[in-house]
Amino acid sequence: MYRLLEKYFSGKCTGEEYQEVVSWIKDPANDLFLGGALKEKWKESLEKDNKIQPDEQLLDSIHHRIALKEQSKRLRHIRIYRQLLVAAAVLIIGLVIHILFFSGPSSPRDIITHNVTVPYGGKTNISLPDGSVVWINSGSTFSYPTEFKDERVVEINGEAFFNVVSMAEPFIVKSSFGEVKVLGTEFNMKAYENEPFETTLVKGAVLFTGKNGKEIKLKPGMQVVVAGGIFESGSVDTELFTSWKEGKLIFKDEPLQNVIARLERWYNVDIELKDDQIKNLKFNGTIEMETFSEVLELIKVTTSIKYSFDRETRVLTIASD
């Protein structure tokens, strides 16, 4: 299949081979291998020493991939978990397009900053020049250079999980709330605008420095939260804040307004809480492969709510029952 994918990417498939590849891509069991193949294409584009020119054959294959996705939508209903996997692959293709068409000619000394934007309803992961791996959540923008020098500096607006390779050069993640500095570690960082900032440490050690210069050191299993300029830190169950990268949302006594904010990004929907008194209703549950309608029914059973959908505004309204 790898040989056929190479021919597919280069636009050299026969009609019979093309149909075989299309059928293989449609099978959800092949998503993991497909994602790996797309990443390899992306890495190849990064490693090219010559001036990068638009690859018309690759563009044609991408058009085939987009057409396939649209055709799949018309033929059958796809479960949300499947949509997220496909969205991750499409995001990687989008990054390849960005590199091919927008990076422009460069010399070996140029350092280009790549911006990876993940829309609502999707998530993806990338490997950085130093070998560190970053999982990027929906509704986020992540920026990183093509090459690290004395410091490894990246920036996040949204949420990301980092598995940082240990090196002498510090690894720094910047956000509008401050920065996190590490040498080698695993941690989650949530820095969405208009929401409390969170850094949750899984392994290693990090130093968070706020915009006001205040510093907080974290040990594994600890979290720092910044809301309204107030810093709080303590021990937490890290799985509650990192399970999203495995395709799960876990809630434990979570206020409904926080749950809704995460569901909006996860399912790419607009939700309005009509009654203020339901914002602080507590919700417990795990969301993994459920469709959005199934999630709403789960919340309805556990929190005594009712909901309606306005087809004109395409906004879902939740009110107390």
From TrEMBL:
The answer, when asked if rRNA-binding is one of the entry's keywords, is no
Domain named FecR protein: residues: 117-206
Q: Which domain of life is it from?
A: Bacteria
Give TM regions: 84-104
Its recorded name reads FecR family protein
Q: Name one Pfam family in it.
A: FecR_C
The residue ranges of the Protein FecR C-terminal domain are: 248-311
Give the keywords, sorted.
Answer: Membrane, Transmembrane, Transmembrane helix
The taxonomic lineage of its organism, from the top, reads: Bacteria, Pseudomonadati, Bacteroidota, Bacteroidia, Marinilabiliales
Give any GO molecular function from the UniProt entry: sigma factor antagonist activity
